[in-house]
Amino acid sequence: MTVVTLETRLKEMMDAGKQKPQTIWGYEKFLKRIGAVDNTMDRYQAESRLFALTSANCRRSTIIALRSVWGIKIPIPAPTPRRYELPSEESLRFVAMQSSHETRILTMMYEGLRLGEAAALTGTQLRKDRLLVDRQVIELSITADSVGGRQRIVRIGPPKYGVAEVTVPNWLQPRIEALTATVLPTSIQTTLQKASKKTGIKVNPHLLRHWLCTDLIDKGVPLPLVQKQMRHKRLETTIGIYHEYQEELLHTLYDKD
């Protein structure tokens, strides 16, 4: 059998153009983590190394990479939803105030923007009380063989699930209008991490989307409207993955003193 290296195989996939560059570079990260750097690994070896991965979702992503790159037919498990302990609105606003990218963090909190979408946001996307979500900043790192280090690629790309409009609170509109340039996603993420550490309140960009979905549902907003604001293709995603709830609430219904 002719040995094919991971770099060669990924280059073939990149040249074919059937998958996004960020997807292919993600494959590289996951496969190198388990040492699947050529086509000599069989299913037995792959499954043995998968058990060393403690994260279920990381294991799932690695299986997808094995199937896509090396054709190893391991069944893909269902994703494991990540659950969050959501801080209060006041706590999240306090964390956001500590960041130089406060406005962009607020758009993730109140419009459900993803990190790359918030990084690409400028005031030109605002249409009165509607925000056009039509781009994201994609920040990628690839191996630069010529220098033996890491090379960062930054470009503007389409949003994850297509162009859409979301509703913006009236008080936030002037702040969005003042945004004149894009920023790097890592810049937002770094300031948010520092603010979380400073305040002791755990916050990350994806938690803000969970907070918005949960807050809208708990306040009685019709589910189709919540789905539209979250830009989910399926209502099941809105209800089953993004809506956080406490099972302990059942005790308040049936437990008696």
TrEMBL record:
Annotated Tyr recombinase domain residues = 79-255
Q: What is this protein called?
A: Site-specific integrase
The record, for InterPro entries, names:
DNA_brk_join_enz, Integrase-like_cat_sf, Integrase_catalytic, Tyrosine_recombinase_XerCD
Task: Could you list this entry's UniProt keywords, alphabetically sorted.
Answer: DNA recombination
CDD domains attached here? DNA_BRE_C (cd00397)
Keyword Transferase present in the record's keywords: the answer is no
SUPFAM superfamilies linked: DNA breaking-rejoining enzymes
